[in-house]
Design a protein that fits this description.
Among the domains are: 103 residues, Alpha Horseshoe (Serine Threonine Protein Phosphatase 5, Tetratricopeptide repeat), CATH 1.25.40; 83 residues. It is mainly alpha-helical and 437 residues long. Helix 10 packs antiparallel against helix 11, helix 12 runs antiparallel to helix 13 and helix 17 runs antiparallel to helix 18.
């Protein structure tokens, strides 16, 4: 490189001058500048945002969006730097925590996992008691969703211990429920079940029916994954009773969708379709776009099962549009992979192959091991149809992941599909019996 252009040289010198001028200020003067920047930025973006719900609220309500949400973490930074030189003004310290929570929630909605988790972790450092434990739990949940399972587990354990020390049985139960979810997602069903039972006991002791319903729904999902369909269905029914009793429409819709998935797995397609439609209506009623997209993807898969390919295609497209609008990479990957299966059944094998490869890359990006396993197995079936030499190894890799997770339902379904496709192709099956694993 022979040198900088005149414009770049000017910008470079300008930045250096700016930084030098900033560093020449006394710490107290810099603090005043950051305090001024804080209040000016807040005013520019619509004034003070409404206070978010307390971290230990009995039934958390997500704060309504506000223009300051987009700059909340910048406001946090200015407040922090202002406090360094002022000796710690009470108002600024409170506002720093205030915007940390709003910023963490906003980043989470935008699927900015690192920013959200880091904000929750900083908030935990600035609070104590039950609020500190809840900030740790929320950081853990974000880390888990982005595939950072080791970090998530440490944070969940710290959250449980913090709530235990604070003597808050209800919040301890909620943190235990998060730890149980992680154990379920990482292939430790026995440990997960034990943790769910502990969580439910804490919630019942505290009379927290709202959280009990949520945790019971997650336990039902564990029963479903581990092949205990009758127990899962009974537990979903108990879950729905609680959600309806406490008026938790959001989670009523989620539980209805999961129960519909169970009915679909059992071949009860008419019942599953009615369940999906009821869940979809609730999600639209309460404005839960994320779950609306997920249900549309599941409904598309049901249309696929019931030989309605055009409806399936259009419904997958609607689901993918919502996932992309929200930036929900995890659910977009699931819908992409399922749509690749529709392409396979339509005989568009090259398109199916590309779809699975895109979905698998996304599953690995977000750390979704369960669907990585499912879609590796299904990708293997596409490779069987293409007579590709990697078909067996690909399918066995996916089967190994599902076996590790203890996902009995999907293991059995994938083995049955593989045996059928191998027979159609004149090949020996890759495993001999569905009881292996």
């Amino acid at each position: 490189m022979t040198g900088l252009s005149a414009e770049l040289a000017y910008l470079f010198r300008h930045a250096l001058l700016r930084d030098a001028a900033y560093e020449m200020q006394l710490p107290s003067e810099r603090a005043k500048l950051h305090e001024l920047a804080f209040y000016l930025m807040e005013e520019t973006f619509g004034g003070r945002a409404p206070a978010p719900a307390p971290l230990d609220a009995a039934a958390p309500v997500e704060a309504a969006a506000h223009p300051t949400d987009s700059v909340a973490l910048e406001l946090v930074n200015h407040a922090g730097l202002a406090l360094q030189g002022s000796g710690g003004a009470a108002e600024l310290a409170n506002l720093r925590r205030f915007y940390l929570q709003r910023g963490a929630e906003h980043a989470g909605r935008a699927y900015q996992s690192d920013a959200s988790a880091s904000a929750w972790e900083l908030l935990a450092e600035l609070t104590d008691g039950a609020s500190r434990g809840e900030a740790l739990r929320r950081a853990a949940s974000v880390r888990a969703l982005s595939g950072r399972t080791a970090a998530a587990e440490t944070l969940f354990e710290r959250a449980v211990e913090t709530q235990r020390q604070a003597g808050d049985r209800r919040m301890e139960g909620i943190a235990l429920g998060g730890l149980a979810n992680l154990a379920s997602e990482t292939g430790r069903p026995d440990h997960a079940e034990e943790l769910y039972q502990q969580a439910l006991q804490r919630m019942r002791d505290a009379g927290d029916r709202y959280s009990e319903g949520i945790s019971l729904g997650n336990l039902a999902l564990l029963y479903q994954f581990t092949g205990r369909a009758e127990l899962a269905e009974h537990t979903y029914e108990r879950t729905l009773e609680i959600h309806r009793a406490v008026g938790n429409r959001r989670y009523e819709g989620i539980a209805l969708g999961n129960l519909a998935l169970l009915h679909r797995e059992q071949g009860r397609l008419d019942q599953a379709e009615r369940g999906y439609e009821a869940a979809l209506a609730i999600h639209r009623e309460v404005g839960n776009r994320r779950s609306e997209g997920i249900i549309l993807g599941n409904l598309a898969a049901l249309y696929q099962d019931s030989q309605r390919p055009e409806q399936a295609r259009d419904t997958y497209a609607a689901a993918l549009a919502i996932h992309r609008e929200l930036g929900n990479r995890r659910s977009e990957a699931i819908a992409r992979g399922n749509f690749a299966g529709l392409q396979r059944f339509a005989g568009r094998l090259d398109a199916s192959r590309r779809g699975y490869e895109e979905a698998l890359a996304m599953h690995r990006e977000v750390g979704n091991r369960r669907f990585e396993g499912i879609h590796l197995c299904e990708y293997g079936l596409t490779l069987i149809a293409l007579k590709h030499p990697r078909a067996r190894d690909t399918w066995l890799e996916g089967w190994g992941i599902l076996a590790q997770l203890g996902d009995r339902t999907n293991l059995d379904a994938q083995i049955a599909a593989m045996v059928f496709d191998c027979a159609e192709a004149g090949m020996a099956p890759f495993v001999e019996a569905p009881t292996q694993g």
